[in-house]
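Q: Convert this sequence to structure tokens.
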Amino acid sequence: PLFPSTTLFRSSLPVGIEAMNGDVSISGNRININKLSATAGGGTINVTGTASYGATSSFNLAMQANSVRIRQSGVRSVMNADLAWNGSTDSSLLSGRVVVDKLAFNQGSDLDQILANFSGDETVSDPSAIANNIKLNVAVQSAQSLNLASSQLSIAGSANLTAQGTAADPVLIGRVLLTNGEVFFLGKRFEIESGTISFSNPVRTDPVVNLQVKTTIENYNITASIIGPVDQLKTTYTSDPALPTADIINLLAFGQTTAESASNGSKIGRAHF
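A:
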């Protein structure tokens, strides 16, 4: 029979599913899904496959998603997917490939907040038994050029990641390559020279940053290297012409070196007398 059009919205879902309909046949305890389609986030989702029900339900499903917009935890993305979900309610595997076309964040998000969105500190709250039993092996890749955008930064690059773990506690492994863009730091605009965000911890999603950015202040070319895990980022500075680190920080914060600041302060003091 052909299922009538239905709509499904749940607060726990990052996308609303609507206009669901399909051609499904039932024989004994076996379900054949010849076609099940829906619209989701402005895109489409299609499911085909078989399932059986009883003491332990089993399934063999293929799922395709096209141009689906997802919003969750301040992250907005548009993606395509080609996935297979096989197994039973006791143990199953979700595998395949997801391609991210666009990625954006809350307008006020800075680099720290964006990296926190990728950290493993948040998992599915109160996960169901099924979510705990779904193992993941999903390639997560970018389209030709991935753009990360907010009012505080604009970054272009590419991603080659794998989602492992479970649906209740996913873990990202792989790397994001940053090729160009800009970030704002200490009120100054920095251009991105190069950078990577690496995910190598097999236990939790733990991004490690290696980012080089540059800016020019008062004819000084300043380069900042931001390196380390999200909760322990360290920044080092160099300049051309060369300046001590204290002078570079003073330039970034106040637009002048410590010597210039002291000189200006001295002149102001004499003017008051």
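The chain has four helices and 15 strands.
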